[in-house]
Amino acid sequence: MTRARQDRLLGLLARDGDWATAASLADSLGVTPRSIRSYVTAVNARVPQGSAIESGPQGYRSGPDAAAALRVTVGADAPRDRLHTLVRRLLDAPDGIDVFETADALHVSPATLDADLARVRSLLGGTELTLERSASQARLRGTEMAQRRLLSRLAHDEMDAGSFDLEALRRTLGEGSVGARAFGPFKNDLVTQLGALGYFVNEIGIADVVMHIAIAADRVSRDRGLEGAGSAEVRPAQQEVAAILASLSEQHLDVRLGAGDLQHLATLVLTRVVAPGTDTPSDHARSRLEPEVEAVVRDVVGQAASEFLVDIAHEDFILRLALHVQNLLHRAKEQAWSRNPLTRSLKSTYPMIFEVAVFIASGLHERLGIPLLDDEIAYIAMHVGGRLERSRRADQLLAATIVCPGYYELHELLRSSVDRSLGQAIEVVGVETRVDPDWSSIDSDLVLTTIDPAVAGDRFVRIQPFLTDADVERVQAAAGRIRRARRLARLREELERYFSPDAFVRGLDGQSTDDVIHRLGSLLIAQGVIDDDYVERAIQREELSSTAFTDALAVPHAIGMTASRTSIAIGIADPSIPWGEGRVQVVALVAFSENDREAFQTVFEQFVEVFSERDSVQRIVRRSSDFAGFLDELVAVIDG
């Protein structure tokens, strides 16, 4: 029973918030229902006086103490905590550690410590560090910057999903680390002073920067500071930020940072957590840009806008994204990646936006050589989503008619209240003041009526002449049902065109991601829909970022809509199979034709929405013994 699987179980329940059966959770984790029950017992044992996971007739759900359980350490004798303790000892001992003495100190056998040292070696990939062993001595060799990257990796491992956790940071650096309890005030003052300089502060990214500041302060207190950059040019912005960091470090941490550390940390602040404020002239912002970066971003954004038919090719979007990409280039040189705690939710909730971000990331990778990770792609997705939210078309609003028999200005007051309370969801297109309107002639999406309608239907919502909070909630609920019904109706129409009995497989047990893509791809190749090149490009797309958009569904596909016609091959896995960092039960290899660009958004967004509901997934998987059963169950779920 591993801590990682316990945390994964708790994370699933906390994210969904609903009841889940042991069987469905077992499918998500790739274990047995009996193991789920054991994990629940172990998780609840972390908070003896509380409830991390609640049990009931419907299964399990997260309890009020779920977050506290995630933060509980399991003791220094646990493998991960012992490993981190060992790494810290190696980092703090320039001349190395004695293996036998360290084993005694950690209360383990020398053989166990040897196994831990082997695990340390596995942590060193990409850190430019090496672990040397000579007789009873073991030591780390590498630059100070490389050693700090290793500490950064440990801190991220301690933190839940990249969120800022001062206690986790303290555990990583050691209980005696400098100023461990001072970083809350330090962070607040840093944000305030950066804001005073006219910067927007990215609160998501600042956790990483504070973590690096903590690491720097701890290392400097042990006489392990970074050397100065010599004759390297220091920009005025760097000098301003460095001065703030120097002052706050002395004030809160009682540490005097050297020139090398200040320059390094100022660069991190400028490339990770700040952006020009709204009153910063665009010409001034552009002056900070390298022309090549702006040109590449402009070209890639134009391609994405054309490929996905999305309205993102705006100057302000291009400028802000180009500044972000330039900062990303600086981070890439130092392998200083930013964690994004919203990555998973962005991918599962906005798959289309994430897919546009992957396309942009792929173009940047080809043109600028940036090795992009999921967290970095998520930041690009946030830029894309922000732009699309600003440019959202007014025709996405539902049209509504108000029926309110005339009495003085009552109907005018009601319309004003509806506009004020519901203006972001609906648009009032008419007001009927007759007591006996022609109900059949009212063809708007919604009818908000203060009298009982003569006809029945989901689009009729009874409200009071003076709008109440309950009225607002009922109208919003009705609007949500109508939008969902329309989305799923479009999905049903599209999917029935793209599915084929010859492109359905049940039983993907024990196959790797590449094997599954090849197997499903061969079915579409046999139909003349795609060729071998498309399959290989689908595998390449998978390497950029996992297409497991939910805990149950993967949608592998190639970048580029090159299929002769749009078609979908379906694979069912029962039990679930590994996919990326998670597990899935349904794999839909999608091949899109250029002629179906508009359908891409429908299929991607709504197909993922259907498979984001655990009960729907279990119903489809359990009853899909063949293609006809799969299609029947899918349609039944869509129709509700």
TrEMBL record:
Keyword Repeat in record = yes
Q: What domain of life does the UniProt record list for this protein's source? A: Bacteria
**Keyword line:** Repeat
Q: Which PROSITE patterns match?
A: PRD_2, PTS_EIIA_TYPE_2
User: What sequence ranges are listed for the domain PRD?
Assistant: 288-394
Repeat listed as a keyword: yes
Where in the numbering of this chain does the PTS EIIA type-2 domain appear?
Answer: 497-640
Which SUPFAM superfamilies does the entry mention?
Answer: Phoshotransferase/anion transport protein (SSF55804), PTS-regulatory domain, PRD (SSF63520)
Q: Name one Pfam family in it.
A: PTS_EIIA_2
Q: What is this protein called?
A: BglG family transcription antiterminator
